[in-house]
Design goal:
The protein is of the alpha+beta class. The chain contains 3 helices and 7 strands. Strands 1, 2, 3, 4, 5, 6 and 7 form a 7-stranded mixed sheet that branches.
Amino acid sequence: MSILYKTYFHGGTTKKNTIVFKKRIPDALYKKIHKTMIVVCVDLVVKHGKEFLLVKRKNDPLKGEWFLPGGRVYKGEGLRAAALRKLKEEVGLRGRVRKLLGAGEQFVKDGYYPKVSAHVVSFIFLVDTKSKKSVQLDSQSEAFAWFKKIPAKLHPYVKDFLREAGF
């Protein structure tokens, strides 16, 4: 199955004149966003040969669970650009986006902030990397591992997209 994915610019906006908002959002505002709006993210199935990378989450939600690397998309940032940025920021790797695997929607009772529910829409990309030796985790993950087979105890979201990627 093929997924239609295109970027459109309107009203004189072009790729060259689109401004990407990269400043850190103040914590109080980000909490308000979580309370009132959907958060758009990218998640990555990072592939090296016949292995895939998972990170162990340090933060809620799903603290202590193996998950796909990924995170929030900045305003003005294309999804593929966000995927490559998150690859570099979260696991210190460079790579190539192979394809969009699909989209996932998550509802979390206690999300990023305690007692603040979250509604997250994620676009999941398959990303190839040439090296698996230079993984450098950011502060949001406590560990990483490369796997050849899908572990039994994984969140269904992670399992579904690993299967979609061919694992």
